[in-house]
Inverse folding.
């Protein structure tokens, strides 16, 4: 084996290694945003979950940056020691973001749709907006939460109450 063919083999090995590195890097799972509403407002995700008692938005003594939100993959509300609600994760520099929330309950209120410009202005806390529902007196069954951010509808959140 001459010196030139050895150099070609070493060069080919470097090329193969470099291509493999590129493939591994680019094939890593990248999470696409849920909705791009504007260049300065991106919804990364919407999650249903629970707040331990005293650590959610309904506790007036709690500071927003101290909320404890636990996402629930099965979307079942069944423990009395928790409050239930959702988290909208955002990528934004805006101080306030307008959201609208409509709820369809087992007794069928029907989907509530906002008027253009409707909703309330919320302040994102560490890149998220948190909402907690009162569960006292809520009947067992399936509920749907319809959400809009700046007049853009997000996928509905469906959850089941089983107390």
């Amino acid at each position: 084996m001459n010196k030139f063919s050895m150099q070609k083999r070493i060069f080919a090995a470097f090329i193969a290694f470099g291509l493999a590195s590129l493939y591994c890097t680019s094939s890593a799972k990248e999470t696409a945003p849920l909705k791009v509403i504007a260049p300065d407002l991106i919804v990364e995700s919407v999650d249903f979950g629970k707040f331990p008692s005293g650590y959610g938005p309904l506790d007036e003594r709690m500071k927003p940056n101290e909320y404890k939100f636990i996402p629930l993959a099965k979307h079942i509300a069944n423990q009395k020691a928790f409050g239930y609600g959702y988290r909208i994760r955002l990528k934004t520099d805006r101080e306030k973001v307008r959201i609208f929330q409509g709820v369809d309950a087992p007794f069928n209120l029907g989907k509530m749709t906002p008027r253009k410009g409707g909703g309330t202005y919320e302040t994102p806390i560490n890149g998220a907006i948190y909402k907690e529902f009162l569960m006292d007196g809520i009947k067992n069954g399936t509920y749907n939460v319809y959400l809009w951010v700046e007049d853009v509808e997000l996928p509905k959140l469906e959850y089941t109450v089983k107390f």
The helical segments are 3-26.
